[in-house]
Amino acid sequence: xxxxxxxxxxxxxxxxxxxxxxxxxxxxxxxxxxxxxxxxxxxxxxxxxxxxxxxxxxxxxxxxxxxxxxxxxxxxxxxxxxxxxxxxxxxxxxxxxxxxxxxxxxxxxxxxxxxxxxxxxxxxxxxxxxxxxxxxxxxxxxxxxxxxxxxxxxxxxxxxxxxxxxxxxxxxxxxxxxxxxxxxxxxxxxxxxxxxxxxxxxxxxxxxxxxxxxxxxxxxxxxxxxxxxxxxxxxxxxxxxxxxxxxxxxxxx
Length: 253
Known about the structure:
Layout: E1 2-6, H1 10-20, E2 29-41, E3 45-57, E4 63-66, E5 75-77, E6 82-88, E7 91-98, E8 103-118, H2 132-141, E9 151-159, E10 162-169, E11 175-180, H3 187-203, E12 210-215, H4 220-228, E13 232-235, E14 240-241, E15 247-248
Parallel strand pairs: 11-12, 12-13
Antiparallel strand pairs: 1-8, 2-3, 2-8, 3-4, 4-5, 6-7, 7-8, 9-10, 10-11, 14-15
C-alpha cells in the first residue's frame, strides 16, 4: 500500500491521515514533508523554529524529525508513543506523548509539500560483518594468515597502555604483539602498537618482542614509520560469509 498527497491544505492533510493512517497506525508508516515548528517537553525543553523538515512516524510509534542535513534526527520520540492529529488555526498539528519517561512533542505544520502513507514489511535480521573482531577471529582460527608457525596464546591481553588485540609466539618462540585494524592503517595505529610492544618488553625476559600491524591496506608512509620502529605489517583481507552466502572482502565495505 502506498498513498500520497501533494501540496495539501491542512484540512486535506487531516482527512488523508485519518483515511490512510489513523485507523491502522500500527500497520502504516507516515512520512510528512513541509515547513514546521517543534516544541518538545520532557527531560529537557526545546523549541525548534520554523524550517522545512521530514517527519517520520513509524509503525512501532517512533516519531523522528529530520532536518535537511545531518544523519541523526533533531527531535524524536521512541516506540510506544501515542500520536494525535488536529487542525488548529489553519495548521496541521501533531501531538506525540510517551509515558516512560514522561515527555511530549508538538509539531506544527504551516505548509506541507507531501504526505506519504505506506505499509512496509521487513523481517530480516540485522547482521554486521567486517568488524575488527572478524579479522581477529580469522587470525585466531588461521594463524598462518600472518605467518607459518605463529601460535596465538591470548586474545585481548591487558597491558599498561591498553588492550592488545592478539598476543602469541612465532615459530622461534619470540613474543609477538598483533594489532588489528579493519580499515586503512594510520599513524596512530603505529604508535599504539609501539606502546604495546614496549609494555610487553617490560614483562618478559626476552629482549626481543615482535609487533605486527594487520590491516587490509597499509600505506607506504605507515610502512616507513613501522620500519623505523622495527615493527612489522601484514595486509590481511577478511573474507566474510554473510547469511545470503555471497562472499565479500573488506574492500567491498
